[in-house]
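Morning - copper (II) ion inputs below, output right after.
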Amino acid sequence: MKLTPQPTRRSLLAMLAGSSAMALSIAPVLAKEPMRPLSIPGVQAIPKVGVVEFSQPPEVRDSVSLKVVFREEENPEKPGEILRYRTYDGEFVGPTIRTTPGTTMGIGVDNDLPPEADAHDSHQNMNEPHGLNTTNMHTHGLWVSPELPADYVLLRIKPGESYDHSYPIPKEHVAGTFWYHPHKHGSVEAQVAQGMAGAIIIEGGIDELPGIKGTTERVMVIQQPKPEKIERFESAAQIAGAPNKVTTINTLHAPTLRQRSGAVERWRLIAANYHDFLHIQLRRLGTTDTIDLHPIAFDGIPVQQVVPVSTVDLAPGNRVDVMVPPLQPGSYEIYKVGDHGQFDAEAEDETIGFVEVGAPLDEVAAPIPTDIPVEFSHPEILKEEVDRPLRTVTYSMKDRPEGGLPMFLIDDKEFKEGRVDQLLDVDSVEEWLIKNESDFMHPFHIHVNPFQIVEISDGSIPPGRWLDTVPLPPHGFVRMRTRIQRFTGQFVQHCHILLHEDHGMMQLIEIK
Ligand SMILES: [Cu+2]
């Protein structure tokens, strides 16, 4: 086993040392409280945490080689106790890959983790955490082939093995914000929660629009790091006992971002966390006054009308590109509004960043666009274009007679490798009704082809929005349409709460 005892380039350890949320406990999986409407709390007395300057992950162009290694840190609250993170190259976030449509992107994965007692192949129950040192690679949101050498998520890269992926990005691909993370069933939550994630930026398209072109861009990979003590996985019981969640941006706890008054910025928000729903605001420091954010793209796909919002909602896996309007000089905070027991009793109010706005710029920034030409996005799928019968998919949860975690089911079944649950035809257009018969919000995510919202039962998302991940309201539904284009092969749709996915809330899809 190789360790990479690199200097703590980022401040995660300092964050852990200063956090009161370090009490060791097992995060409850399900909110036991009844559903309540989300309310915006009053002013929270949150002290400013030191000054950590905002910084971004290093950037690479077109291709990257990632070595999967443990990073070990001493638990500041328990001297002598080692916390382990599975990481890319010893960092808590991977490098940002920038590429362009028409390019073949490369991601090499070299798994340097040690062999484990309970490897993927020999484990009895595929629908509980297992094979934590086995990995693979998923390019979340990209419209690329689900077959090797591209986005084949059934691949297993075992300890000591490596694989070089190549992903031809279609010339017609939208420009936007995507991300990569491992997707090996049974180790997805552990690996993503420990820091195996990074941004992918496809350049071009709307980047050239007046009001977007030339603005300062900030990549914000949002994570809630969760280390554990397991070196060699032996049983699912070992998973218990990880520290509580603290939200980081680019691995930094509450970093301070500095800008000039009058500047317009583009923030690429990436929910690379493993469990919580994130509700993000920009507030004047110490107040509940919000600054409207202008979303120009959801899940990397541009909108046609830019509708300013006070809160940006991200399910785990979602991305939102927002334009931040010119600010007056002063202090602001990036604020995460907790769920207050709605879906996750653990999700608390938290200042996750600060913005210090200094002396005004000399020039006046170009106005933020209000309309974006459809040529930069996907054209609407009209009802007449649908050429297959309605497909219905149902998410549910069922208590086990023996207690413990419930079963996480799609169409009454747990995931089974080798069993194709949905067979699709290439070059067809479908409408899906995705029902949620549980008390819990599940973010539905499908690989390869994005979809367009027709209706969501709680009205939280306007019809017409393109996404690859959408929260299914409890006892509600999402109706969407999707073009199944170009690519054939096997891939998955699943819940993007990664614990649910590892427990089998996933289906195998094949396009022929
Ligand atoms: Cu779920």
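Note: The first helix runs from residue 12 to 18.

O.
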